[in-house]
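User: My instructor asked us to take a sequence, write out its structure as tokens, and then describe one feature of it. I'm not sure where to start. Here is the sequence I was given:
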Amino acid sequence: HLLFTGALLLLVILAAWWTVFLGRAVGNERAAGEAELRHAAHLAALLIGHGEPPADITTLPGSVPLELIPCSERRPGDLSVAAMPGHVEICVRPQPDRVQALDDQLARRRLMVAGEGSLLFALVGVVWLMLLRLVRQERLHRTRMESFIHAVTHEMKTPLAGIMTLLETALSGRIPPDAQARLFTMGLKEAERLEHGIENVLLAGRLRSGHHRVDTRDLDLREQLETLIDHRRRTLLDRPEALELVWESHGELYVRADPDMLRVVMENLVDNGLKYGGPEPRVELRVGIGDSAALVHVEDGG
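Assistant: Let's start with the prediction itself. The structure tokens for your sequence are:
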């Protein structure tokens, strides 16, 4: 953050310096243009002042167009020069059209500098807004990551604590023989819960990083769901009927899917139903067909 802030401050300083530098350059260009016109008027005035007086007031030819006027008509700032020493009543000055052309050119240059400076400051402002947004997104991402790690740690510590308690109890020999099957089934349930949580975290990381490759193939949906239910019923102890499969489709039903991702999705839905389905949860997978697609409804009473 300090590096980006320092770079942004440097850009602001450079933009301000660039604008001031070009503004002064335009001012120097005007001074140089006026000096050129005044120098031409001085040379012409010296030639006239040391020579014969002109027959009439006229325009003088040359690279810088000049004109002769009575000095009584001179105005402040019109770059007129008296024809000294011989004809002080006659003044030489650049033609007004040439002075106006110089003013117009410099006005366009000032407008260009102002436009470019405004664009540069606008770009710096856009960069600052983008930086501010990136900083906020990073803070939000950090907050979400901290919450995610806290939640994942809590979800993993709970089954791990249950497994450790079960192992300590078994090691001490305090488990009655008639309760061993039930307690070991509970331990298996907690181990599978821990494994499932780790699998979800790893899959989420691969999906976020883009390294996960989806391997789609034709799958027998009934076989996939029956395998899932048989696996889950092992941890339902004396309530295997809490998880049922209702097949409303006739005949075989194949789907195009990644078997691992399909299993993870269905396990998440079934686990949520069993976890939040009330004191005696009951989850039913109802399978049918609609609009050329397989429909799997996961229903619970929570």
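For the description part of your assignment, you could build on this observation: Helices lie at 2-49, 96-172, 177-209, 221-233, 259-275. Try explaining in your own words what that tells you about the chain.
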